[in-house]
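TL;DR need structure tokens for one chain.
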Amino acid sequence: METVMLQVGEKAFTGHVAMPTGDYKDKPRGCVVVLHEAFGVTPHIERVCADFSEQGYAVIAPAMLALAVGKPEGVVLRQNKDGLDEARRLIESTDKAELLALVKACVAWGKGQGLKVAVCGYCWGGSVAYASAAQLPEIDACVCYYGGQIHVICAEMQSQCPTVVHLAREDRYIPIEEALTALKAHDPRAEVHVFEADHGFNRDDGVTYDVGAAMVARRLTLDVFSQNLN
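>> reply
TL;DR here they are.
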């Protein structure tokens, strides 16, 4: 993956970029902003970006933890308990307005190429994707994978574009019934899918990876992109 620098006020942060090749090299089908899980732009997230680019999309994944650690390239944390504890500390210290501005810079990067733009986030990034789609009218579609704060966010503000939410029935981190109730009450237009899986079912290097759920969610996600970006 290549990198670009994203300007947020007087600061600059790294965006990891994967561009399509072949038939879509000169004219991508659209742009996807991939918002990473708690651990940063991990090899798994890089594979997600590569997959979307292979489907014809220009992809950019901002290093969101950079906002907390003060380094443009951010940090990639170990995917264990210590890494998760550190991630929670960093996420808690991340300024939400600055984070929204970083997502907006990614959206502007895609719009600057004349493309429609979707946000697609996982775990922490899932919550960020939904909150961004509620506040940035320039976003054309939103996909939220098991966003831990989705039940809180959607009660305060709702996505303004076509939105798909992927949830896991056995999720240890998200109160599934609260999430379903909140989405039904506050954002009934959102397309919600519940998989018989655990949190992180899409992360192919994790212990809760569920290939069946991941593949179905991927197809539904690509459908959203195809319907709203092309």
